[in-house]
Amino acid sequence: MVSSSDPDVSTQIIAQAKSSGASLAGIASIRSLRNSPSHRVHGKPVWPQGAKSVLILGLHHKETEPELDWWDGNKGSPGNRRLINVANGLIEWLKKEFNSNAYDLPYHVEKGGIFLKDAAVLAGLGTIGMNNLLITPEFGARVRFRALVVDRGLEPTSPIDFAPCESCDMHCRQVCLQKAFRSGSYSRTFCNEQMETDRATRVIVKEEKKDLPFEYIKYCRACELACPVGK
Question: Where do the domains of the chain lie?
């Protein structure tokens, strides 16, 4: 009988995630995630009962596909919907292959989601950079994440020794439209000012098959696109 924490099981799951459309995938334990900095500050999260592991899925957000991040209200974004499809396929596969239950987590923490950057670091996908974004060796900061929890104690993928900001000229800070690093560290307040500007300048387009107007918010990606890692 294969042990739940057998490394080969985790390897199979990660391979399946990538073959299903994820650019990156990693695994962390629920216990380690509860002890991560953001989750300790936020308080005890409410996750599905019996959850033991979390599978982090990453999607490379290429500069040539800006529309992946265009937010269209309650429908979310094309990139997030792509990740949801990957997650749903994995839920079925995990049940079939290992008789394990998995649950797709919502994107927002206040709706039962997780702090994806903390989880991605624990899963060995990258590190949180000076731009306050998750930076991966493969794609820099140009990655979108989603996660699902599994009722199986999977072997975690370990955090990596990766410090790309130590010798960087901080291009991200130079291009920030709101000078969100003016105090020397990241300011969510200043960053949110840009997000409000983005919402106010939303774009009205028409869907090809229906003569109905749709609104898309093109959130700023200046610091993300300026990151030289992975280019």
Answer: 7-150, 171-226
CB 25 within 8 A of CB 17: yes
DSSP string, 39-71: HHHH------TT--EEEEEEEE--TT-GGGG-B
- Residue 74, token pair as written in the block: 């309650």
User: Which residue(s) pair with 145 in the sheet?
Assistant: 58
**pLDDT tens figures, 15-67:** 999 999 999 999 999 999 988 888 888 776 677 888 999 999 999 999 999 99
The amino acid that residue 175 corresponds to is V
> Are the C-beta atoms of residues 84 and 146 closer than 8 Å to each other?
yes
Q: How many residues does the chain have?
A: 231
- This prediction has a pTM of 0.90
Taking the C-alpha atoms of residue 91 and residue 87, their distance in angstroms, rounded to an integer, is: 6
